[in-house]
Specification:
CATH topology of the largest domain: Rossmann fold
Structural class: alpha/beta
Number of domains: 2
Distance between the termini: 45 Å
Length: about 350
């Protein structure tokens, strides 16, 4: 059984078995895909050498010798266990060729029929890239902007017609935005983004809301045509009082971050100082030294009393003296794009009229 109904896979969030080798999976795969390889990295390497020397037929024979007996049973069992939990699962290899066909045959021998993806990873990946490209003709983007700490992500998550680029990229979109877990690969980011676009557009939204990110989120690039499409959109500015912004930033970069680093607060301290170092050139040496000193004093106070409150001082300094002037400069250049300004409540009311 073969299928190239990729749209259905996306809309139904269909579980997938990726039978490629781990080294291939790590470079990028699909949403809801699990790596249960037919051959591991070492076996793949040996089979590749055999293929180059003696051709496809001998390479296939070697593969069957390498994966036989109890090893074959173990891999088939892993597939069967997954299928038992996810009866609608489908499987794929790189081009939908020998590896997925062999896997499908072994499962059939074990009494289990499963559909494999026609064209495999390559065909599905191309479909997602094409859909991202084509999506730009199907919706009007809206950019949600505002000062750092305004609560843009909080607001974004209340909107059904939003795409959370920071969430997909596992990054908070600033010099301090690095998460303790790494960002996905560029391929995984693009694939997840395509899933989001397809699913949102299937719901019939004419407008999609994006946070004001530019072309990149951390180390990841937003696909060029999509980034260009978004960059020309109307800009809605979320206005939030400074004390509220301090509280939002404090919750995110101190309270929540320290919860993640609970077992090693010294690592948290090191990461934050490193983030401050990254903006030293823009801050200026004197101001950078002052902010670092305020941060270290706050950390010392935390160690003494257990209170986190002192951290709000360096947060306010960075917001008012670094982030706000930088954002003001950026918005001046895009003043013609600004369509609306207001609080979260006012923005929600405004969006409801579109």
């Amino acid at each position: 059984m073969l299928s190239n109904d990729f749209r259905s896979i996306v809309l139904n969030s269909t579980p997938l078995i990726d039978v490629r080798a781990p080294v291939e999976f790590e470079k990028g795969s699909f949403v809801n895909a699990v790596n249960l390889p037919l051959i591991n990295d070492k076996e793949r390497h040996e089979i590749g050498i055999c293929y180059k020397k003696y051709g496809n037929s001998e390479a296939v024979k070697l593969g069957h010798r390498l994966v036989s007996g109890s090893l074959k049973e173990e891999r088939v069992k892993a597939w069967l266990d997954f299928i038992e939990q996810h009866p609608d699962a489908k499987l794929f290899c790189f081009r939908g060729g020998q590896r997925s066909k062999i896997s499908q045959e072994w499962l059939k021998d074990a009494g289990c029929n499963i559909t494999r993806l026609k064209g495999g990873y390559k065909a599905f990946r191309n479909y997602l890239l094409e859909q991202t490209e084509e999506s730009c003709t199907r919706f009007k983007p809206i950019i949600l902007g505002g000062y750092t700490g305004s609560g843009k992500t909080i607001l974004l998550k209340t909107l059904e017609n939003s795409i959370d680029l920071e969430g997909l990229a596992n990054h908070r979109g600033s010099s301090f935005g690095k998460q303790i877990t790494p960002q996905p690969t560029q391929i995984n980011f693009e694939n997840s983004l395509a899933y989001n676009l397809i699913q949102k557009l299937d719901k019939g939204f004419d407008n999609l809301v994006f946070e004001d990110e530019g072309n990149r989120v951390g180390s990841l690039s937003i696909p060029k045509n999509l980034a260009t499409h978004i960059s020309k959109a109307p800009l809605i500015i979320l206005e939030t009082p400074i004390q509220k912004r301090i509280e939002i930033t404090f919750d995110e970069y101190v309270v929540e971050a320290q919860r993640v680093y609970a077992k090693d607060l010294e690592q948290y301290k090191s990461e934050m100082l490193h983030a401050m170092h990254r903006i030293e050139r823009r801050l200026g040496s004197q101001r950078h030294n002052e902010v670092c000193k305020i941060f270290e004093n706050a950390f010392d106070e935390q160690n003494k009393s257990g209170s986190l409150e002192a951290h709000k001082e360096w947060i306010e300094t960075l917001l008012v003296e670094y982030y706000d002037p930088m954002y003001d400069y950026q918005i001046k250049k895009r003043a013609k794009q600004v369509e609306f300004r207001g609080s979260s409540k006012e923005i929600l009311e405004y969006l409801a009229t579109l």
